[in-house]
């Protein structure tokens, strides 16, 4: 079992890709704590609030005293064209997708041991220029760069930091992005056609590479971006206006 005995915190673990990570990590023997904004999680956290992240660190400290793996899957999505995105939406996307990651790592850093692994979850949109995705893509691109800087800064402490960029994955968040009047199933099929494999992914298909990055098998892997996108960023087919 790849993660046997490792203490793993999954933020955003109540649904979607996060829930997939929780399932795979537990299957591989990890002790898992699920944090989310919903009351059904092991711990409730608002990643945009540094105080809330500090309280989450207190929960982890009380339960385990330390942390071997941290997976940041919490995120906010938005689809709107340039000139239509208001300042409040920009601030929300940056607060959840970028500042939230910083808040969590800042609060949990004292608990991360010398062989700990941090995995952030960005998006294939950080690497492609889809109309209607500017603000979301920019926030995820910022998360990618921040993750790589973290890898350089934390390497001296033995902490590995990597970023996974998923393509379209069949999650409640993706289905919730369907434009008005477009059935969710039709929208999922449409975005699936943007990938080389011609389909959307499943949460577990993203969770498996994340589990690898958490494990000792990835002991020499840090500062990298893993594209788990069905070939979306490698595919030179026609682009799409998702908005």
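^ structure tokens above, recovered residues below v
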């Amino acid at each position: 079992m790849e993660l046997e005995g490792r203490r793993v915190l999954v933020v955003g673990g109540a649904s979607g890709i996060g829930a997939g990570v929780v399932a795979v990590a537990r299957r591989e023997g990890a002790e898992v704590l699920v944090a989310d904004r919903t009351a059904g999680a092991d711990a409730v956290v608002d990643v945009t609030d540094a105080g809330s992240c500090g309280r989450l660190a207190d929960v982890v400290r009380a339960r385990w005293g330390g942390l071997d793996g941290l997976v940041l899957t919490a995120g906010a999505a938005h689809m709107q064209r340039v000139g239509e995105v208001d300042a409040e939406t920009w601030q929300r996307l940056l607060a959840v997708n970028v500042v939230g990651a910083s808040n969590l790592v800042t609060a949990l850093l004292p608990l991360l041991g010398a062989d700990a692994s941090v995995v952030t979850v960005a998006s294939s949109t950080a690497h492609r220029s889809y109309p209607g995705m500017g603000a979301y893509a920019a926030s995820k691109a910022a998360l990618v760069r921040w993750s790589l800087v973290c890898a350089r800064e934390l390497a001296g402490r033995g902490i590995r930091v990597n970023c996974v960029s998923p393509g379209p994955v069949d999650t409640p968040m993706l289905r919730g992005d369907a434009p008005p009047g477009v059935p969710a199933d039709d929208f999922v099929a449409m975005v699936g056609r943007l990938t080389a494999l011609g389909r959307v992914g499943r949460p577990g298909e993203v969770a498996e590479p994340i589990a690898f990055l958490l494990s000792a098998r990835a002991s020499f892997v840090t500062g990298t971006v893993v594209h788990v996108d069905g070939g979306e960023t490698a595919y030179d087919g026609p682009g799409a206006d998702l908005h």
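The two ends are 43 Å apart (CA to CA).
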